[in-house]
Amino acid sequence: MSFTLRWGILATGWIAETFSKDLLTNPATRDVSDVAHRIVAVSSSRDAQKARDFLTKIDGPQEAKTYGSYAELVADPDVDIIYVATPHSHHFQNAMLALRAGKHVLCEKALTVTAEQARRLVATAREKNLFFMEAVWTRYQPLSLKVRELVQAGEIGTVSRVTADLSFNNDQLVPWVTKANQPKRDAAVEPAAEEKPDETWHRYYHLYKEGELDADVQAVGGVVLESGYERDNYWWAICSRGPDER
C-alpha cells in the first residue's frame, strides 16, 4: 500500500522549479509504487504572488496553498516535509526553522556553510526524531549503488583513490581564461609597464555515443566490468586494468 508525502516548497528559484517538476512526475515511471508525492504548499520569502506564479510555471496543483513568508509555510499542518531551495547562506536558518516546527527536511546542497551549522541541524533532527537530508541525488543513482556493491564485495580490490566527474549533455569547446599576473610597480614613480595578456584555453566536452566509452576503455587495454546509460544523459562504465596492465 502506498502513502502520500505532502511537500512544502521553500523558495521559488530555478533549482526549486527543477526539483518540483521532477517531484510531480509519476513515481511509476521509475518502477516505484509504495509512495506518491504531492505539493501542497509553496512559499516565497516575502511575496505570495511569486509563489502563485511558481505553481503556474511548474504546472503544479492550483489548489496548493501559497505563502509570502517561510514562517507561514512551516506552520502549515498539512505539510509533512519541507524542501529548502534558498541560497547556501540561508540553508541553516531555513532548515532550522522547519525542523523546529516539527517538519522533515530535504535541504539543497551545499547543506550549510560551516561544519558547526551542519552538526546543529543534525542534532536538532535527532532530538525531534525527524528525517533530515542533504539533496545529493547522485547517491541513489543506479551507478552509485552498483559501485558501492562492487566495492563492498571486493570485486575491484582495495580502493585507494577515487576520481568522480559529473557530466552534462555537451559536445563543444568551452573557453577557460586564466588571468595573467601583472608586474607590480609604484605608480607614482615608475612608468606604466606593458601588461601581459590573459591566456585563453579551451576544454573539449564530448557527447558519447552508445558503445563508444566501452571501446575507449578496451582500446587502452582495460576490461569493462559493467556499463550503462543514466536517465540524466550520460554513459558510465566500471572497469579494471587488463591482465597485461596489472
UniProtKB/TrEMBL annotation:
Top-level lineage group: Eukaryota
Gene3D superfamilies on file: NAD(P)-binding Rossmann-like Domain
UniProt name for this protein: D-xylose 1-dehydrogenase (NADP(+), D-xylono-1,5-lactone-forming)
Upper lineage: Eukaryota, Fungi, Dikarya, Ascomycota, Pezizomycotina
Catalytic function, reaction form: D-xylose + NADP(+) = D-xylono-1,5-lactone + NADPH + H(+)
Signal sequence residues: none
Gene Ontology molecular function: any one: D-xylose 1-dehydrogenase (NADP+) activity
A Pfam family this chain is assigned to: GFO_IDH_MocA
Keywords recorded for this protein, A-Z: Oxidoreductase
Keyword Ribosomal protein: no
